[in-house]
């Protein structure tokens, strides 16, 4: 049985009021186990035909996993999924597609050097006898798809690289709609769009809703949710917190649902002993990512940086430490202007960056723990230009024991360690160097609670010893628990600052959405 | 035990060498003589010198420098062409000329991340054309009148140091020095970091373009030394002198346990790889196998070894890069 838009329209016609249209999708007590964690924990979730259903939650709440389940990414989920009223198995992407589930992902999946038409119809190109592509039919079908997203002015024979980014985003949606889904999942669909383009996207979403599609809309942006959604489901720690009508919630109550009860005893209160200003960032700019950002950082201080996904946190860190080129502004470290776009020089002066993606950017997975810890020290610790020996070993042993890295030996490849221990090694690399300014980008993403606690203790100890720490985190308890104050980034602009006494998970999340606490102006 | 396992790659290649010694003894009674062993060493000496440099390029994660044969030919031609300045100045000119190609390779590949294989292939093609054009497709002969710098030059290859020919001593020196640089110096360590993960090396504050540059420079230096020696051996400089050394050197490096993906291996293994190639070639010659068919065997050995390395990487679940 293949569920398409047309089958749904038949049900629509037979019913009188909107509420009777019926359930397009129902997930009953679904769970997904990852090694070590239950990513989705007995969740009930339903979407009606003809509604936009927002799915919200912090990073790691389980919404991506839930949607991957829907996309057929797992063959080992438990629980029952119904499409329409029929029970279905979604154990492969093909099954999900056959049951009319369409996914629009954040990252574009279009092939740049190929025409719009071929991208739209990939995998189902109309052919003539002999296997030749029926070009006329392909163009007609492509035009029909483009029309659905208001792109009828585009020539489908144009290549993707010839059209703009936002048009490509809409083509992506058209590609999914071309398969006539009855359930459409949109994951942060506005992340690549400007304000004007977002409005156009809303119009398209409303049109699709009117036609009876069930739309799941994932977004971190509260304003979007209030603009477009009919109902909202909030997830936290793999569980469903609740489903509400949008009419019955406020931004504050939604945020409250997302963050839940705050457990504060996890973080002991720090009484920072602030020293001199060590880092001053002056009107730093990188076109398209970071605009005119200025702030300063004192010795012994942990300064948090809050912001939604795409607010430009990592971009700020990378341009600040010299990994990416700046288009304007300067960074002053210990009274001296830092040479732009020269990260090795910054590291030599004690400004270091713990990158967000430990597997791809941070660690040498195929090298032993010892080598990873010593990676920051190649410029130092030589005996007559020669390396190795007792001093290296003692540095390695000290980091392994103080961070309690669980490894068979210091010669074990880092790739064989668990995520938490990998992250400790990554931190150990910089602790071994004894940095003056440490930029941490998501220092505890994807690690277990114990590793997280050790990492946090190490960061606080470092600050107590007089290092300045810039903490970029989307983990709200972490950000609130560790930071002495926090900057708020939004669309690459520094929009304000939150002091320690104003800082709660709610205030940070609201500020990241543009609602600063009173008197919190920088 | 762990240490032993990590040295398996190195030990393995010497195991193969011993096996080949046995096979050689079976093939011919004349095989296992001091004279033949010396013949083998002499035959692989130039390969060993080139491999000692090539190993750095492979170790740094850039697979191979295919321009090394043209570096060899070029350094030889320049040496011969500048012999009128005296032997030592000519040798310096020749080696510097070869290294200038390495500097260019290293700059372009390190700074602009050009594909090392394609870039060095293009440079090799360019250099061949350049040398043929400049010297009108001719061989360049030194003046070998007795007492001249030219005579001293062609004598280099024919010098013995004790029981060993000079070329063998140079090979052992280059490999020994290479081992020291690779494992004990800052440059060697940074090369391993870059070879293991370029992105992680960048975020660790390592000056990656500079490290890459130095690796290609080291490779060109070794090839230039080999180029001087092979020119001395042939008593003439010409554009095709280094032909075939690119692939043979990578083969020696890879069967010596240096991973094509970078970051693993050492010079002791490379020496083993060079010896295995020498033994294999020698045995095949004893068996009356012609050089073209020997190439077929070398090609097959390379494919098998690279296949095994990849398999081991996958089996270890570490092919995520």
Low-confidence blocks of residues of chain B: 1-6, 317-321
What is the overall silhouette of chain B?
globular
- Largest β-sheet summary of chain B: 2 strands, antiparallel
Q: Total domains of chain A, how many?
A: 4
- What overall geometry of chain A do the principal axes of the alpha carbons give? globular
Unreliable stretches covering 5 or more consecutive residues of chain A: 1-20
CATH class type of the largest domain in chain A:
Alpha Beta
CATH topology of the largest domain in chain A: Rossmann fold
Total domains of chain B:
1
**Average pLDDT score of chain A:** 86
| Strand percent estimate of chain B | under 5%
Q: Which chains share the greatest interface?
A: A-B, 34 and 29 residues
How confident overall, as mean pLDDT of chain B?
A: 92
SSE order and pairing:
The complex is a heterodimer of chains A (522) and B (321).
Chain A: H1 5-14, E1 23-34, E2 37-48, E3 52-56, H2 63-70, E4 78-83, E5 86-88, H3 93-98, E6 101-104, H4 116-120, H5 135-148, H6 165-177, E7 183-187, H7 195-210, E8 214-218, H8 222-228, E9 231-236, E10 239-245, H9 251-259, E11 277-286, E12 290-298, E13 302-306, H10 313-321, E14 328-333, E15 336-337, H11 343-348, E16 351-354, H12 358-362, H13 369-374, H14 390-402, H15 419-433, E17 437-441, H16 449-464, E18 468-472, H17 476-482, E19 485-490, E20 493-499, H18 505-512
Parallel strand pairs in A: 3-8, 3-9, 6-7, 7-8, 13-18, 13-19, 16-17, 17-18
Antiparallel strand pairs in A: 1-2, 1-4, 4-5, 9-10, 11-12, 11-14, 14-15, 19-20
Helix pairs in contact in A: 5-6, 9-18, 14-15, 15-16
Chain B: H1 2-6, H2 8-27, H3 34-62, H4 68-81, H5 87-112, H6 116-134, H7 149-156, E1 160-161, E2 164-165, H8 166-184, H9 186-196, H10 198-203, H11 208-234, H12 245-255, H13 267-286, H14 291-315
Antiparallel strand pairs in B: 1-2
């Amino acid at each position: 049985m293949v569920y398409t838009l047309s089958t749904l329209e038949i049900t629509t016609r037979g019913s009188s009021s909107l509420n009777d249209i019926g359930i397009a999708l129902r997930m009953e007590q679904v769970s997904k186990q990852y090694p070590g964690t239950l990513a989705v924990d007995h969740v009930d979730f339903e979407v009606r035909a003809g509604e936009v259903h927002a799915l919200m939650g912090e990073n790691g709440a389980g919404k991506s996993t839930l949607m991957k389940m829907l996309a057929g990414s797992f063959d080992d989920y438990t629980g029952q999924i119904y499409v329409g009223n029929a029970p279905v198995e979604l154990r492969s992407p093909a099954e999900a597609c056959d049951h009319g589930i369409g996914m629009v992902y954040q990252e574009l999946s279009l092939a740049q050097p190929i025409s719009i038409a071929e991208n739209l119809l990939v995998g189902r190109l109309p052919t003539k006898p002999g296997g030749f592509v029926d070009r006329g039919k392909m163009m007609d079908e492509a035009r029909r798809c483009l029309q659905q997203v208001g792109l009828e002015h585009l020539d489908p024979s144009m290549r993707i690289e010839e059209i703009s980014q936002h048009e490509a985003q809409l083509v992506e949606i058209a590609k999914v709609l071309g398969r006539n889904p009855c359930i459409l999942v949109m994951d942060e669909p506005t992340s690549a769009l400007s304000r004007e383009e977002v409005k156009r996207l809303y119009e398209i979403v409303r049109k699709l809703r009117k036609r009876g599609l069930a739309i799941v809309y994932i977004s971190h942006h509260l304003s979007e949710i209030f603009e477009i959604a009919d109902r909202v489901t909030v997830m936290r720690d793999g569980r469903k917190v609740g489903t509400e009508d949008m009419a019955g919630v406020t931004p504050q109550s939604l945020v409250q649902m997302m963050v839940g009860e705050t457990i504060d005893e996890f973080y002991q209160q720090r009484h920072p002993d602030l020293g001199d200003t060590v880092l001053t960032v002056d009107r730093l700019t990188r076109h398209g990512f970071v605009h005119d950002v200025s702030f300063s950082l004192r010795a012994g201080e942990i300064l948090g940086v809050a912001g939604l996904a795409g607010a430009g946190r990592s971009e700020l860190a990378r341009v600040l430490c010299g990994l990416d080129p700046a288009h304007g502004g300067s960074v002053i470290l210990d009274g001296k202007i830092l040479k732009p776009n020269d990260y090795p020089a910054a590291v030599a002066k004690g400004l270091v960056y713990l990158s967000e993606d430990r597997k791809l950017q941070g660690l040498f997975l195929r090298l032993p723990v010892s080598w990873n810890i010593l990676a920051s020290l190649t410029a130092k610790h030589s005996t007559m230009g020669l390396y190795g020996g007792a001093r290296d070993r003692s540095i390695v042993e000290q980091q392994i024991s103080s961070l309690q890295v669980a490894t068979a030996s210091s010669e074990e490849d880092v790739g064989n360690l668990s995520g938490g221990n990998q992250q400790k090694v990554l931190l150990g690399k910089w602790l071994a160097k004894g940095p003056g300014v440490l930029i941490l980008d998501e220092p505890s993403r994807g690690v277990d609670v114990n590793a997280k606690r050790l990492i946090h203790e190490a960061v606080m100890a470092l600050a107590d010893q007089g290092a300045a720490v810039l903490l970029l985190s989307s983990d709200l308890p972490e950000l609130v628990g560790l930071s002495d104050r926090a900057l708020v980034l939004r669309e690459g602009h520094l929009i304000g600052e939150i002091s320690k006494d104003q800082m709660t998970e709610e205030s940070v999340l609201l500020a990241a959405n543009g609602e600063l606490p009173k008197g919190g102006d920088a | 035990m762990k240490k032993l396992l990590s040295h398996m790659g190195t030990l393995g290649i010497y195991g193969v060498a011993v096996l080949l010694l046995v096979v050689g003894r079976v093939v011919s009674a004349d095989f296992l003589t001091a004279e033949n062993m010396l013949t083998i060493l002499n035959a692989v000496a130039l390969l060993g010198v080139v491999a000692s440099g090539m190993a750095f390029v492979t170790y740094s994660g850039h697979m191979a420098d295919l321009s090394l044969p043209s570096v060899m030919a070029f350094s030889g031609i320049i040496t011969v062409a500048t012999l009128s300045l005296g032997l030592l100045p000519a040798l310096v000119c020749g080696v510097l000329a070869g290294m200038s190609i390495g500097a260019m390779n290293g700059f372009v590949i390190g700074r602009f991340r050009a594909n090392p294989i394609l870039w060095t292939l293009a440079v090799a093609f360019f250099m061949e054309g350049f040398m043929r054009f400049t010297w009108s497709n001719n061989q360049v002969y030194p003046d070998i009148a007795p007492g001249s710098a030219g005579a001293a030059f062609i004598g280099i290859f024919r010098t013995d140091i004790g029981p060993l020919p000079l070329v063998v001593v140079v090979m052992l020196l280059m490999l020994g020095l290479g081992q020291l640089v690779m494992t004990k110096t800052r440059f060697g360590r940074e090369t391993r970091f870059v070879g293991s993960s370029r992105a992680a090396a960048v975020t660790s504050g390592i000056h990656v373009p500079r490290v890459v540059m130095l690796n290609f420079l080291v490779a060109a230096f070794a090839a230039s030394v080999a180029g001087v020696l092979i020119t001395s051996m042939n008593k003439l400089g010409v554009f095709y002198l280094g032909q075939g050394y690119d692939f043979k050197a990578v083969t020696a490096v890879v069967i010596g346990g240096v991973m094509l993906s970078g970051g693993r291996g050492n010079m002791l293994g490379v020496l083993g790889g060079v010896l295995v190639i020498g033994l294999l070639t020698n045995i095949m010659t004893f068996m009356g196998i012609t050089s073209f068919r020997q190439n077929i065997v070398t090609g097959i050995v390379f494919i098998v070894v690279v296949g095994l390395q990849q398999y081991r990487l996958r089996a270890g679940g570490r092919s995520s890069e």
